[in-house]
């Protein structure tokens, strides 16, 4: 701390944070980071603003962020307005043709443009897309089709994103995509984010969630596992330490790493500026999964 009384403790802290961030800014400049955006960070106004600012700051220092989003709460709201009862089976939304019309309207339209407008309002240059645009994502029916028009990712062709990223735009992608017959399908946003990160050979995949990360004990927030190898993550699933809704997120990270993504992070989106804290600080705030057993943050 400087002895100069004109320099406040807050100012000194800001300078210290910027100094700590410098090597990470240098390392990730020109690299791609895919962020799955959802949960409380989409619902609460202060958290939304923090995410928008984090993404724009990343783009401003040369990182190439790509955003993939869901929008379950808003889908439910619009289904309610239309007197369509939401139905879930095995944790997945049963998507009838009638429901799919609402899902496509809400995700590819309303939610997508809210995010685009939010990013632009804080100085970003965002472009809204869905999986169907430029054949970015090709869907296939999920499982045996018991969930209706729920899809899985059959293929990803990120060619449409390259000129946008090279020009400094932030692509914002909703998880709706068409199958080979042209029928739109509703795909889990975590799955789209993971497969897209692999296709882009992204430096990082970051899943913003409503949990602190992977916990050794779900009832103990202090049991956060800060770093784990790909093999270690598999062992945690097999041992039942990872269970419930954290299982598909962890499996998403494992698949992305197995396809060449540098690191995958499960981060608490309820913490303001969680993205910057995870990417640009030594300690991070969530769980980082890496391919190697030799673990180092970021």
Rg: 19 Å
Q: Output the CATH topology.
A: Carbamate kinase
Strand ordering within the main sheet:
5-8-2-1-11-13-14-12
Main beta sheet: 8 strands, mixed
Total helix count? 10
Give helix and strand order, one letter per element, not per position.
HEHHEHEEHEEEHEEEHEEHHEHE
Overall mean pLDDT stands at: 91
- Poorly predicted spans: none
Q: Any idea what the shape is?
A: globular
Summarize the structure.
The protein contains 10 helices and 14 strands.
Secondary structure layout:
Elements: H1 9-28, E1 32-37, H2 40-43, H3 45-60, E2 64-69, H4 72-81, E3 88-89, E4 92-93, H5 97-121, E5 126-130, E6 137-141, E7 150-156, H6 161-166, E8 170-174, E9 176-178, E10 184-187, H7 189-199, E11 204-209, E12 227-229, H8 230-238, H9 246-258, E13 263-268, H10 274-280, E14 287-290
Helix pairs in contact: 4-5, 7-9, 8-9
Task: Tell me what you see in this structure.
The chain is α/β, with parallel strands linked by helices and 298 residues long. It is built from 10 helices and 14 strands. It has one domain (23-290): Carbamate kinase (3-Layer(aba) Sandwich). Strands 5-8-2-1-11-13-14-12 form an 8-stranded mixed β-sheet, sandwiched between helices.
């Amino acid at each position: 701390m400087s002895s100069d009384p004109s320099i406040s403790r807050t100012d000194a802290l800001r300078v210290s944070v910027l100094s700590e961030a410098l090597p990470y800014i240098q390392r990730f400049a020109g690299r791609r980071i895919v962020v799955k955006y959802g949960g409380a960070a989409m619902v609460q106004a202060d958290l939304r603003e923090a995410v928008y600012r984090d993404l724009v700051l990343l783009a401003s220092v040369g990182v190439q962020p790509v955003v993939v989003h869901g929008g379950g709460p808003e889908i439910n709201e619009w289904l309610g307005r239309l007197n369509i009862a939401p139905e879930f089976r095995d944790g997945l939304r049963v998507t009838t043709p009638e429901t799919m019309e609402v899902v496509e309207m809400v995700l590819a339209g309303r939610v997508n443009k809210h995010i685009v407008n939010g990013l632009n309002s804080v100085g970003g240059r965002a472009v809204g897309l869905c999986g169907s645009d430029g054949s970015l994502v090709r869907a296939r029916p999920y499982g045996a089709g018991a969930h209706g028009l729920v899809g899985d990712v059959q293929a990803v062709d990120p060619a449409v994103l390259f000129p946008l990223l090279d020009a400094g735009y932030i692509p914002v992608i909703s998880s709706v995509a068409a199958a080979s017959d042209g029928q739109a399908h509703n795909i889990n946003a975590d799955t789209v984010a993971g497969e897209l990160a692999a296709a882009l050979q992204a430096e990082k995949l970051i899943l913003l969630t409503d949990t602190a990360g992977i916990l050794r004990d779900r009832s103990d927030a202090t049991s956060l596992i800060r770093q784990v190898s790909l093999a270690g993550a598999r062992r945690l699933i097999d041992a039942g330490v990872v269970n419930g809704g954290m299982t598909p997120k962890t499996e998403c990270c494992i698949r992305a790493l197995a396809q060449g993504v540098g690191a995958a992070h499960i981060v608490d989106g309820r913490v303001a500026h969680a993205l910057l804290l995870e990417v640009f600080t030594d300690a991070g705030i969530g769980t980082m999964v890496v391919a190697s057993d030799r673990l180092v943050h970021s």
